[in-house]
Amino acid sequence: MSASLFDIAPALAAYLSILAAVLGACMGSFMNCLAWRLVAGESVLRGRSHCTACGAQLTAIDLIPIVSWFALRGRCRHCKGKISPRYVVVEIVMAAVFLSIALEYGFTVQALAYAVLACILCGVTLVDADTYTIPNGFVIAGLATWAATVWFMSVPSQGFGPGTIFAAQLGEGFLAVLADGVAGGVLLGGGILAFSLLFEQVTKRDSLGGGDVKLLFVAGLFLGLPLGLFSLLLACFIGLAIAFVLKLSGEPSDSDVHGESDDGSGELESFRTRAIPFGPAIAAATMLTLLIGSPCMEWYVGLLM
Questions:
Q1: Which of 33, 164, 290, 304 is 20 to 30 A from 183 via CA?
Q2: 163 and 289: one domain?
């Protein structure tokens, strides 16, 4: 992998680690706001942040990531309405993700690309969980991020990573990463699209929609072929876990009344009782693969040799 924070002076590494975590928390707060506005139909470019209950404008003291939620005890300063713990959870998770990316990839163009991807996947998770849709804007942002940064990437010196399987033919520069990304995107996106169409043809029931397929294509671009397949398998397990939790929640079923969304994003149907959004599972699996996929693949290959 790229030089990590462990390769520099401890004091500087500690400072940069804190900086990465703070930036992650801030981006988590931003994505919370962006996702809520998309779901509520508000403009994402205009207007001040406000309480979703009473509409009061929020000031800086209300918007400090993580700190404000705990300081206000999860309630609005103005109307005392409850603020969902989802906001602070997202901020904490994004802080951890940004820190993990910095520790693994250092402060490089590759780390920047993965940090932007983390923000995109965060937005996908929040919107898809609420609306069962994946806005095309997130997909376009993912494509643009990969297209702008793939030229600066190279094959990792050890382990599995984007470009590994093409390094022998194309060298260890960006060409191998580019080829692996295209192969991963086509296999994940195209393969799942073909499987989904076949499943629907045979069972006469909805499966994955276009939004999920497009998101898998983007994930394949960033991960490449081997890690993309690992991520897809992991996403299936995470999706089943989400379905199991929703099953235990005892909420009313909506699988009989939902249809495919306007933008083509579909849902998985769990235990024939309720639908679940698959976007959060894809997002979680993609980030986990970027962070721990290489050692997991090495361990698996080691079992076969």
A1: 304
A2: yes
Contact at 8 Å (CB) between 230 and 296?
yes
Main-chain phi, psi angles of 12, to 5 degrees? -65, -40
> Is residue 138 very low, low, confident or very high in pLDDT (cuts 50, 70, 90)?
very high
Q: How many CB atoms lie within 10 A of CB 202?
A: 8
Q: Which two tokens stand for residue 15?
A: 């400072």
> The domain containing residue 265 runs over which residues?
153-305
User: CB 198: neighbour CB atoms within 10 A?
Assistant: 11
Nearest residue to 24 via CA among 66, 72, 80: 66
Res. 140 pLDDT band, cuts 50 70 90: very high
| Residue 268, beta-bridge partner list | 276
220 alpha carbon, distance to own chain's centre:
13
> Does residue 221 or residue 266 have the better pLDDT?
221
- The answer to whether the beta carbons of residues 284 and 126 sit under 8 Å apart is no
Of the listed ranges 96-105, 265-274, 291-300, the one predicted with least confidence? 265-274
**Cα separation of 287 and 214, whole Å?**
17
Q: Please, are residues 126 and 89 in contact by the beta-carbon 8 Å criterion?
A: no
Give the whole-angstrom CA distance, residue 83 versus residue 28.
Answer: 15
In the chain, the number of structural domains is 2
Average pLDDT score over residue span 163-171: 90
pTM of the model: 0.87
List CB contacts of 221: < 8 A, sequence separation 6 or more: 142, 143, 146, 150, 181, 182, 184, 185
pLDDT of residue 256: 40
Pull the structure tokens for residue 76: 């609005």
Please tell me whether residues 39 and 98 are part of one structural domain.
yes
Dihedral angle computed from the Cα positions of residues 119, 124, 129 and 134, in that order, rounded to the nearest 10 degrees: 170
pLDDT at 254 over 50: no
